[in-house]
Amino acid sequence: MSALLKVENLSAGYGEAVVLNDVSVALDPGKTLALLGRNGTGKTTFMNTLAGATRQHGGSITLDGVALHKTPLHLRAAAGIGWVPQERNIFKSLTVDENLTAVARPGRADRAAPWTPVRVYELFPRLAERKTNLGSQLSGGEQQMLAVGRALVLNPKLLLLDEPLEGLAPIIVQELLRAIGRITREEGLSAIIVEQHPQAILAISDQAAVLDRGTVVHSGTARALLDQPELLDKLLGVAR
Ligand SMILES: Nc1ncnc2c1ncn2[C@@H]1O[C@H](COP(=O)(O)OP(=O)(O)OP(=O)(O)O)[C@@H](O)[C@H]1O
């Protein structure tokens, strides 16, 4: 199987500052990668770089055979990147429904059931109940659901979720984890998930990579890291 995403020898950062150094990652179609690491190790910078929001200094990014590093930020959604940034970026002055319909793109020919606002409401019934509420009137968890829904209706090839569970109540975390599992496992959408709750994300991921100081210091299966909690703690700098 050829990789959906191939990142090779990537270096990137902000202006002259280089944050990511020689990062290589590959992801097969339909698979999920958990991207882990301590604070400030470059996880968000990696996601931002896939989305085209940083300065790339070197290396290459290929999505579905297309050289993404040559595609500017405003064309990356059309190129297949569904980005849910840490700050969620929903339109706060539009209703839930307007948020979804404003960005919806037709599905790709290879998808039997494209994501539409209707399907997003099935996935997140809470959003269906809030259709006419403004983005600014939603709770943090509902905003996160809307941000995920907005990325889905773009019908991306690769979904990027940057700390989707951050700051959310445990019951909402469970709802989101179930929904993410459905999107990836059942619907077969490829995803990269950055998270501070490693166990929860590893449990729904296929692969794992750990960043430290802008470099990949571990990569393998998610299962192997779940089975070796001491190794995981060591990689994440957690004292036992
Ligand atoms: N807009 C920016 N301009 C300059 N430097 C930045 C910017 N954003 C992040 N950095 C720097 O890049 C490095 C990596 O930060 P990044 O946010 O990618 O890490 P992270 O692993 O996602 O951390 P966290 O878990 O805290 O979100 C840090 O040293 C940070 O100070």
UniProtKB/TrEMBL annotation:
One of its GO terms (molecular function) is branched-chain amino acid transmembrane transporter activity. Residues 5-238 form the ABC transporter domain. This is ABC transporter-like protein. It comes from Hylemonella gracilis ATCC 19624. Belongs to the ABC transporter superfamily. InterPro entries: AAA+_ATPase (IPR003593), ABC_transporter-like_ATP-bd (IPR003439), ABC_transporter-like_CS (IPR017871), BCAA_Transport_ATP-bd_LivF (IPR052156), P-loop_NTPase (IPR027417). Keywords: Amino-acid transport, ATP-binding, Cell membrane, Membrane, Nucleotide-binding, Transport. GO terms for biological process: L-amino acid transport. It comes from the Bacteria.
